[in-house]
Specification:
By secondary structure, this protein is α+β, with helices and mostly antiparallel strands. The chain folds into four domains: 2-316, D-amino Acid Aminotransferase, Chain A, domain 1 (2-Layer Sandwich); 321-401, no CATH class; 415-633, Rossmann fold (3-Layer(aba) Sandwich), CATH 3.40.50.300; 648-824, 2',3'-cyclic nucleotide 3'-phosphodiesterase superfamily (2',3'-cyclic nucleotide 3'-phosphodiesterase fold, Alpha-Beta Complex), CATH 3.90.1740.10. 34% of the residues lie in helices and 21% in strands. Strands 22, 23, 24, 25, 26, 27 and 28 form a seven-stranded antiparallel beta sheet that branches. Helix 5 (246-256) links the parallel strand 10 (228-236) and strand 11 (259-260). The longest helix is centred in the C-terminal third of the chain and has 18 residues, at 706-723. The radius of gyration is 31 Å and the shape is globular. Bound molecules: guanosine-5'-diphosphate and magnesium ion. Guanosine-5'-diphosphate is lined by residues 421, 423-429, 521-522, 525, 576-577, 613, 686.
Length: 827
């Protein structure tokens, strides 16, 4: 059927049957809306209102009378609310010379993907909408709004801004859009003022897609004649959404030199559905890869009771678009030296990456261009040409190969996880985290003393497999002969053994950074290690570490002994153990779903890493202990020893570290340097906490509210009994991030516990997350003092605050944090 449906950019003749919509602005209505928006604007972050919007003002650079306009931006999630004064995505107003308010740019009402919200479920689309249905390709560039101001200035905006960034910066989307407009108007002998007047007479905003690969390359190709401004809509500048029928939009495009957006008109929604589903099969239409369609029609929540209004929904295709996007992200990761993470299309993506690697190695400029979004499409097309495949086939290939050797559904036990690493890469940290999450065994080579350690080490590992499905064989295995011994002995002792390598990649470009980071970590570890008491014998350990790095033999997956590994997972030693834990778990989950059927949630992983970072080994032996009897040999004690129960130190709501880190990054990006100094310092000295929590109540203050403490304790006991884990999750509690408050010693985030039924409360005066402290002399619990001072006197003096623009609400895990013995962590 798809072949019989033709996309046309010429509905001009049938345009006659459509009436041009027109409606004037009602200044009173607009004033009311602007007031309402103003009351919800989050400039100072003081708004307690239900929805919030961001107001930004711009002076229109091209306006001779210096007109100022305001952009109003809602948060994406707020578009699902029912109480917004307008649902326009892209909404700008101004004050006219007579003082009244006026809408100058009006985007489309926010529209949703099929199935994304209730209204866009097929049932509803089938029963509540009416045609004609106008299907256009979901163009893939950047949206540009155009309208005319009171002084005949042509206003050109991108979604939420207009004008330049400043004299020295690269052109903005709005700048490039305006250049295209000038070009197309010149070709017709028309002026920007002509277009401004026409749009103003219509009380309308023209909506176009800027598609220009030479400026910015997206997923689909727009070069040469294909580049330009694609007009796809004309909206009335009214709070309610009124938009032109597409044939009229195409007429307007012809008259003003825009490129036209191809269009399919259909009357029957069932045919629309069939058509979309058929296109989704191929991800292409008329031989061109597309991302999806936008469908314009009219909707009412109840056809018998309420009037129809203009309404859009979108229908996005999965493939090969998603595969292309994955390739693009992986290529960028490859160039940046990061891990390439991907789950779908494994085989073809791997081949693509091998191809890309070779091409990039030959041509360094390609890498640079690629990071600037150039050459993405040509690289992909070269690969497809080389494979003699089209995108749809390549994406489908995986389905056929779903049982590719990468996914092993048989292995559920007898797994030995063996790092290939050097000292300080985080082997033990990742091991401890895995073991606490999954109850796996852990054998540390450092705990094996005496002579002929290698075979005894492997035997200890294999023995662990009787206690659990997997064991972490914690040893460097930096050299091939060690790997050979490990794999051979494992397989000799257990025929069913599956040996998985964790390859901490030491590429040539990276090795100095690896060296530096590992050194720093090990120095920070001080004497807390079995064989390397760094604080005591500095030079000795540096030599030992360097020795490992020098002898390090990278994995050679296609030749023995490394080809005997059942699977190899690449890790980045500089990425940090939290990130590496994530990679290991994701990869094991994908490759051995029976071994690791369910992913833990991010907070559980944060907690596991934090505990691992706090771990201190009990055994200590001298570095020369291979050749002489250890002086201070203690009885061997591995982590498998049952620990004596530790008391609860405090209760906390853990929140995902990645969300906190990205919120902080965003918040501090636009802060002047002198005000973001502490943040920069904390990051530079690695004193941002690896894991974040809101303290609910601490043992030390339990007497302030013994009932609450007892309630928490009894919940914790019940859960511990049920799960066997004293720090098991006790419940969920949403955490709303409000602002960052800091002086020059300590930084905290003021939060709100969004727990509807009030189960979870904090006894701290101000609920907060400690971000980090300047050095060990500043204890995290001093956040309380900082916030007390802030509460009393506000900002000023040493105390600063940065209010989060978008109030993030995070899902938190409530759990107990157990005492760590003598070195206690006080929140
Ligand atoms: P191994 O020698 O490979 O076993 O490395 P460890 O796991 O013992 O890590 C070396 C030191 O670095 C320990 O003190 C860890 O607590 C610390 N460490 C591990 N991972 C990280 C990390 O991601 N960030 C920081 N800052 N320290 C880490
Ligand atoms: Mg170790």
């Amino acid at each position: 059927m798809a072949s019989s449906v033709v996309m046309s950019t010429d509905f001009g003749q049938s345009a006659d049957q459509f009436k041009v919509p027109y409606e004037e602005q009602d200044p009173q209505e607009v004033t009311k809306i602007v007031k309402d928006l103003d009351a919800h604007a989050t400039k100072g972050g003081k708004s307690r209102a239900k929805y919030s919007c961001r107001k930004t003002s711009y002076e229109v650079e091209t306006s001779p009378t210096g007109i100022e306009i305001f952009s109003w931006k809602f948060q994406d999630q707020d578009y699902k609310r029912r109480d917004l004064p307008t649902y326009a995505r892209g909404f700008f107003t101004t004050r006219k010379s007579d003082g009244s308010h006026e809408i100058v740019i009006r985007g489309y009402d926010k529209f949703f993907n099929n199935d994304e919200v209730n209204e866009t479920k097929w049932d509803n689309i089938l029963s509540r909408t009416r045609g004609p249905y106008e299907l256009s390709l979901k163009e893939n560039g950047c949206i540009i709004f155009i309208s005319g101001l009171e002084d005949d200035t042509l206003l050109v905006c991108s979604k939420h801004s207009t004008g330049s960034r400043g004299a020295s910066s690269a052109p903005t989307h709005a700048n490039v859009g305006e250049q295209w407009l000038e070009k197309q108007l010149n070709a017709l002998g028309k002026t920007k003022a002509d277009l401004a007047r026409d749009l103003r007479a219509r009380n309308a905003t023209a909506v176009a897609e800027l598609c220009d690969d030479s400026f910015e390359e997206h997923i689909l190709a727009y070069t040469g004649d294909l580049a330009g401004l694609y007009l796809h809509g004309i909206n009335l500048n009214t709070p309610k959404f009124h938009t032109y029928p597409s044939p009229l939009v195409q007429n307007f495009a012809t008259n003003w030199g825009f490129k036209k957006t191809g269009l399919i008109m259909m009357d029957d929604i069932k045919k629309v559905k069939d058509f979309l589903e058929e296109c989704a099969e191929t991800g292409a239409h008329e031989g061109r890869d597309v991302e999806g369609f936008v469908i314009r029609c009219q909707e009412t929540y109840d056809p018998n009771r309420a009037a129809f209004h203009d309404w859009f929904f979108k229908y996005k295709f999965d493939e090969p678009y998603l595969m292309y996007r994955q390739w693009r992200e992986c290529t960028k990761a490859l160039i940046a030296g990061r891990n390439q993470r991907y789950k779908k299309h494994r085989k073809i993506t791997e081949e693509y990456l091998n191809y890309a690697k070779k091409r990039l190695a030959k041509n360094p400029k390609l890498s640079k261009d690629y990071m600037q979004n150039h050459g993405i499409i040509s690289l992909r097309n070269e690969f497809l040409a080389y494979k003699q495949m089209d995108g749809a086939d390549a994406a489908k290939m995986e389905e056929l190969l779903d049982n590719s050797p990468d996914v092993n559904n048989e292995v559920s036990k007898d797994v030995i996880i063996a790092p290939i690493a050097t000292i300080g890469c985080g082997k033990t940290t990742v091991a401890l985290a895995l073991c606490s999450l999954f109850g796996w065994g852990h054998v540390q080579n450092d705990n094996i003393t005496g002579k002929v350690r290698p075979p005894r080490f492997v035997r200890a590992c294999i023995n662990e497999l009787t206690n659990g499905p997997a064991v972490f064989a914690d040893r460097n295995n930096a050299q091939k002969h060690e790997r050979k011994q490990l794999i051979k002995d494992c397989k000799d002792l257990n025929r069913n053994a599956t040996v998985v390598a964790l390859h901490f990649v030491h590429t040539e470009e990276k090795v100095e950074e690896v060296r530096r980071i590992c050194r720093e970590r090990v120095i920070a570890r001080g004497d807390n290690h079995q064989t390397i008491q760094a604080a005591t014998d500095q030079q000795k350990f540096i030599d030992v570490m360097d020795g490992f790095i020098t002898r390090f033999e990278p994995v050679d997956p296609f030749n023995p002994p490394d080809s005997y590994f059942d699977s190899i997972i690449d890790l980045d030693p500089t990425a940090g153990s939290r990130a590496n834990l994530d990679t290991v778990i994701k990869e094991l989950h994908t490759r051995y779903p029976m071994l690791l059927p369910k992913m833990p949630n991010p907070v559980e992983m944060d907690v596991a890493i934090q505990e691992a970072l706090d771990y201190k080994p009990e055994l200590r032996h001298n570095i020369k202990s291979h050749t002489q009897r250890p002086r201070d040999k203690l009885p061997e004690r591995g982590p498998q020893q049952p620990r004596k129960p530790r008391p609860v130190e405090f209760f906390a709501v853990g929140v995902p570290a990645s969300d906190i880190n990205s919120a902080l990054e965003k918040a501090f990006k636009e802060i002047p340097t002198h005000q973001s100094r502490l943040y920069t310092q904390l990051k530079g000295t690695r004193r941002v906490q690896p894991q974040f929590h809101v303290t609910l109540m601490h043992r030390a203050t339990s007497q302030q509210n013994p009932q609450l403490w007892d309630k928490y304790i009894s919940l914790q006991k019940a859960e511990a009994e049920k799960t066997g884990r004293p720090d098991a999750q006790l419940g969920e509690c949403d955490v709303l991030l409000e602002r960052v408050v800091y002086d020059d010693r300590i930084m905290a985030i003021v939060v709100r516990l969004a727990d509807a039924d009030g189960t979870w409360q904090t006894t701290n005066k101000v609920a907060h997350i400690t971000v980090g402290t300047r050095d060990d002399s500043v204890k995290p619990k001093e956040s309380n003092d900082l916030l007390a001072a802030w509460l009393e006197n506000g900002v000023g003096g040493n105390i600063h605050e940065v209010v989060f623009e978008n109030k993030l609400q995070l899902k938190g895990n409530v759990h107990a944090v157990l005492s760590r013995g003598k070195e206690q962590y006080r929140p």
